[in-house]
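In response to reviewer comment 3 from the previous cycle, which asked for concrete evidence that the modeling workflow produces usable outputs, we include below a single protein chain processed end to end. The sequence was submitted unchanged, and the resulting C-alpha cells are shown without manual editing.
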Amino acid sequence: MKKKNKIFKLSMLLAAMLMIGGCAAQESDVKQDTEQSAYTSITAEEAKKIMDEETGYLILDVRTKEEYDEGHIPDSVLLPNETIDDDVSDILPDKDQKILIYCRSGNRSKQASQKLADLGYTDLVEFGGIIDWPYEIEVIE
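The workflow returned the following C-alpha cells.
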C-alpha cells in the first residue's frame, strides 16, 4: 500500500512539473511572437515590388555615410544605425509611415528596425542588405 502511495505521489509531482514547464514554454512563445511582430522581414524582391506598386513609403539606409556614398538605393534616406536614438523625428516624423529598412548585409537593418519599433514606429519592413539588392543603385561622386 505504501509503495502505491509513493508511486501516486511521484506521478502527481511529475505531472505538476510538466504542467509548469508547459506553461513556461507557452509564455516564452508569446514573448517571441511579440518580439517578432515589432517589424516585418522580407526579401529584396518583395521590397522592390512595394517600391514599384505602392506610394507613401520611405526607404531608410542605416549604413554609414561612406557606405551610402559608395552606392545606395535611389530615393533612400540615410540614418546610420549608430545614430538612432530618441530624437529621430526630424528624419522620421510619421511613426505610422511604412519604412523600408536596409543596410549592407542585414544585421544593422534588423537592429535599426528593433530600435525604431522600440521608439514607437509601427510599419517597419526590414529587407536585408544592399549586397542582395539586384536592382539599380546610385553612387555619390
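Residues 22-35 have pLDDT under 50 and may be disordered. We consider this sufficient to address the reviewer's concern, and the full set will be provided in the supplementary archive.
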